[in-house]
Amino acid sequence: MSPLGIKRRVDMLFFALRNVWRKKGISLLAILGVGLGCALMTFLFAISAGLNARLEKTFSGLAGRVVVSPRDAIFGGMFFSSGTPLPAGYLDAIRQMPGVLHAYGRVAASLRPADDPNLILPFNGYTGEETARPGSPFKKIIAGRAPVKNNEIIIGKRLQDSLGFINGKMTAGHSYRFIVPDGPRLEQLTLTVTGVFETGNEISDTSFCGPADLARKIARFPPDKYSSIDVQVDSPERIPAVEKEITAHFRQGNPPVQVVIPRDLLNPLRETLDTVNKFLTAVSLVAALAGGLSIAIIMSASVLERMREFAVLKAVGWRGRHIVMLVLMESLILSLCGAALGLGLGGAGAVLVRRYVFPDMIVLNRSLMAAVAAAGIITGTFGGLYPAWRAKQAAPADIFRQG
């Protein structure tokens, strides 16, 4: 492009900038329309990205894991104590199987806060050898310390956040009363929360953890029994072989067992999350289209008022494409301002939610913000296509004849 052509484009840009702010109130309405759409897109996409990140982190934490539990246990014996207890001999046999890297006995129980007895919370008891494992909750303390006494527990970060919305957040260093069964009666047990842990595994992070002996006391388990056995396979590819080996070995066992792959249990959750993501995307697109529609309506009204102006420009030598470019530039300027406003509002809202409501449910990154900005600019610019076409139709002779 020649220097003269560049100068004309720059002059047209400044002309468009002046025209945009000729009627500030109308321009602000257009910017607000695009801005609100982009703000909603930013917030919803940030939630979607956060949910996906949390699920993927959980999936990666469950890679290579297999849970062996009684066949009559609900939810694969992963959440609450149920089913016939497994003898310690099962654990010894599994540890000798090929492909098994580690195997730990787990005792599951449930805790009911004394101030809200209808609330049933999962509690996982860990044996001493498992508490030393690098990835265990006892090694992922983010506040406080690990329990050392039989009346001390730690709470998962997700559970702590959730309780904050129900009956108050449980914090490290404080004692709380829980209701536990004592034969036919119920008694209150005072436990001290010594720390908060975060493993990145949503299943673990939504529970209490503590010594296995405490879990046995609460669930009334004998000392040589487990509610489930957590098996770590040396390679995710060997999970089918290990599953087959465990199933065959305990086919005639008493009690019978079931082999659960935790990742498979979460597949329905992934499908549900995909549906939620599609819904959020649809809502975001509608918001973006609404922003583009606001540009189209306001620019159309502006073009109708300025038909005489366009006729004059044509009379002094402007071509139809110049008129189209001018109107599209004005739409682009409004879209840019609206997208910037929307990113600011949506980003601020997301940051506030992340800080005060759901700390790890919101993910903001450059690619997300770039996608929102692009969507706002594109829809806003497309909203200017029809007004630009109308402006191009301005016929100087007809308009001047009409006075």
Topology (SSEs and partners):
Elements lengths: L2 H18 L3 H38 L3 E6 L15 E2 H8 L4 E14 L7 E6 L1 H4 L9 E4 L7 E5 H10 L7 E9 L2 E13 L4 H4 L2 E4 H8 L5 E2 L1 E6 L5 H11 L7 E4 L1 H4 L1 H39 L1 H9 L4 H37 L9 H18 L1 H8 L3 H6 L2
Parallel strand pairs: 4-9, 6-8
Antiparallel strand pairs: 1-11, 1-12, 2-10, 3-4, 3-7, 3-11, 5-8, 6-9, 7-8
Helix pairs in contact: 1-12, 2-10, 2-12, 2-13, 10-12, 10-13, 10-14, 12-13, 12-14
Relevant terms:
transmembrane; ABC3_permease_C; two-stranded antiparallel ribbon; alpha+beta; cell membrane; 403 residues; Macrolide_Exporter_MacB
Can you give a write-up of this model?
Pfam families: FtsX, MacB_PCD. It is a multi-pass membrane protein. This is ABC transporter permease. It comes from Desulfotomaculum copahuensis. InterPro entries: ABC3_permease_C, MacB_PCD, Macrolide_Exporter_MacB. The chain is an alpha+beta fold and about 400 residues long. The chain has 2 domains: about 5-60 and about 270-400, no CATH class; about 65-265, no CATH class. About 55% of the residues lie in helices and about 20% in strands. It has 15 helices and 12 strands. Strands 3-4-9-6-8-7 form a 6-stranded mixed beta barrel. A two-stranded antiparallel ribbon has the order 2-10. α12 (about 320-355) runs antiparallel to α13 (about 365-385). The radius of gyration is 32 Å and the shape is elongated. The mean pLDDT is about 80.
Strand order of the largest sheet: 3-4-9-6-8-7
Shape estimate? elongated
Proportion of residues in extended strands: 15-25%
Radius of gyration: 32 Å
Total beta strands: 12
Helix proportion = 55-70%
Figure out the total of helices.
15
State the order of secondary-structure elements, H for helix, E for strand. HHEEHEEHEEHEEHEHEEHEHHHHHHH
Gap from first CA to last CA = 39 Å
Decide which structural class fits the backbone.
alpha+beta
Low-confidence stretches: none
Largest sheet: 6 strands, mixed, barrel
Q: Give the integer mean of the pLDDT values.
A: 82
- Count of discrete structural domains: 2
Domain ABC3 transporter permease C-terminal: 282-393
InterPro entries: ABC3_permease_C, MacB_PCD, Macrolide_Exporter_MacB
GO molecular function, one term: transmembrane transporter activity
Membrane topology: Multi-pass membrane protein
